[in-house]
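Action item from last meeting closed. Structure (300 res):
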């Protein structure tokens, strides 16, 4: 049986750690011995405004509990800001071992109502924010021959949440980045994975009413579901993926509601014909779409 997974001697960066799921990640890692950089720009849900208070508040909690942490108020969407987060880890603790890319914003609307600026804002924070922070930490990981990257994706990337084309697409980019970077990191001592949270936070609150209506749920039932999804139930999965014992590469763990599961892309058995025509596809569509004997698409 596995003993307690601790992080003594490790330094972790958690972005978007001033509230919600990110704050829970930071507190759990600190409670298990990690020194933590709590990075949060303190913005509103749509990415506007900024405040030092969220990051500083979580740092105070960690210190009051006997842990070690520093706060950074910087935008991950800015390459220089992302670099300053990694610099803070080196300046305060002399190293960086773990990056948990959790920072995010939400601005849901129908596709024809979203502006191109809103699409770009989602990509800037979720995708480029993940790339910038990871890229800034990468030379330190390579020099140490060790590192853990835990990205944050969402089931919205699967297309099962309404009015999420901008957000879901940005999270899909993070998923692809996770898979391809994990392939590149093979054999280096660096592992790259992702967590897909199922948690009730200020971000998910904006979607609760729409999800309830879309699925025919009453507000009372949705309230019960939300109450069963506290953000701290996501953090054990993030902690495992951040640990030196993690054996996964390029995987997504869906976590929340007291459960954890793998999200994987699968390929059906399909059909094989040569030559292949469009009519062959039409005539054999049932077999092509049948995933009962499908296989997960694994990291090469």
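Sequence:
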């Amino acid at each position: 049986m596995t003993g307690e997974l601790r992080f003594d001697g490790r330094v972790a960066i958690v972005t978007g750690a001033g509230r919600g799921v990110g704050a829970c990640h930071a507190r759990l890692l600190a409670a298990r011995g990690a020194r933590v950089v709590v990075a949060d720009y303190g913005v509103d849900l749509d990415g506007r405004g900024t405040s030092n208070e969220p990051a500083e508040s979580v740092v105070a909690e960690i210190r009051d509990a006997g842990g070690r942490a520093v706060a950074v108020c910087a935008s991950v969407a800015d390459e220089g800001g992302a670099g300053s987060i990694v610099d803070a880890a080196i300046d305060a603790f002399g190293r960086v071992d773990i990056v948990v890319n959790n920072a995010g914003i939400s601005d849901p609307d129908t596709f024809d109502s979203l502006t191109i600026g809103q699409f770009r804002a989602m990509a800037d924070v979720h995708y480029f924010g993940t790339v910038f922070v990871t890229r800034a930490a990468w030379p330190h990981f390579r020099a140490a021959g060790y590192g853990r990257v835990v990205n944050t994706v969402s089931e919205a990337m699967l297309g099962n949440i309404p009015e999420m084309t901008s957000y879901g697409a940005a999270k899909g980019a993070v998923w692809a980045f996770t898979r391809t970077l994990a392939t590149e990191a093979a054999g280096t001592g660096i592992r790259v994975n992702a967590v897909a949270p199922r948690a009730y936070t200020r971000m998910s609150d904006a979607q609760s009413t729409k999800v309830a209506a879309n699925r025919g749920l009453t507000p009372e039932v949705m309230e019960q579901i939300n109450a069963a999804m506290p953000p701290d139930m996501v953090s054990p999965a993030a902690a495992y993926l951040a640990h030196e014992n993690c054996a996964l590469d390029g995987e997504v763990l869906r976590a929340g509601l007291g459960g954890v599961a793998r999200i994987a892309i699968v390929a059906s058995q399909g059909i094989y014909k040569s030559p292949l025509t469009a009519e062959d596809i039409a005539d054999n569509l049932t077999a092509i779409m049948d995933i009962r004997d499908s296989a997960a698409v694994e990291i090469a």
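Note appended to the action item: Residues 19 and 266 are 34 Å apart (CA to CA).
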